[in-house]
Amino acid sequence: MRRQCCAWSRRWRSRTTSRPFTRITTFRTRSSRRSRPPSSLPSWPGLRVLGVDPGLIATGYGCLETGPAGVSVVDSGVIATAPDAALEGRLDTIHAGVRALLDKHAPSLLVVEDLYAEYRFPRTAILMGHARGVIYLAAAQRGVAVLALAPAEVKRAIAANGAASKGQVERGVQMRLRLPCPPRPSHVADALSLALIGLSRAQGRL
Fold this sequence. Notes:
Helix 2 packs parallel to helix 3 (122-141) and helix 5 (166-177) packs across helix 6. A five-stranded mixed beta sheet has the order 3-2-1-4-5. The protein is built from six helices and five strands. The chain has 206 residues and is an alpha/beta fold. The protein is globular, with a radius of gyration of 16 Å. 38% of the residues are buried. The chain has a single domain, classed as Ribonuclease H-like superfamily/Ribonuclease H (Nucleotidyltransferase, domain 5, 2-Layer Sandwich). The termini are far apart.
């Protein structure tokens, strides 16, 4: 098992750049509306969903597909930008990376973390909005439907706790996907959790 975990961890590292990155923290506003997926999606099995956890320095992604044996991981990793790059350069990198993933995997649905903010950090929400904007643009250019899910909504579904820690989310994703060890970094785990809930929501399971 340890050997499997080491190999799994190397896979995550090989999909990222060598540049260091930091986690961008934002805070959501509460919404009473339950997010719903588009109605015109392929039936189970055969559905492919791409989850994207937006971030200006590191954007995680995870692509899942349903099949006779259940849900499998098609691809996952991080789109990393240079910490010293200008905002427009980072957005261009994120847009190009997401568009390349859409071209490569041709998902029926893209699931993205919803925008959330707190009055103490308005600038963070605005910057995150930029990242989400280019992700939406890439989806529109490729004709892919988008579903936005609030972080607390995903945590409740994955870890039965809307305030779950990153470790709890990682272990929840590991259990649901039957992975040899928790997916890392956290951006990848978040993206896979988004894709998991997107799959379930599209089939009316949640």
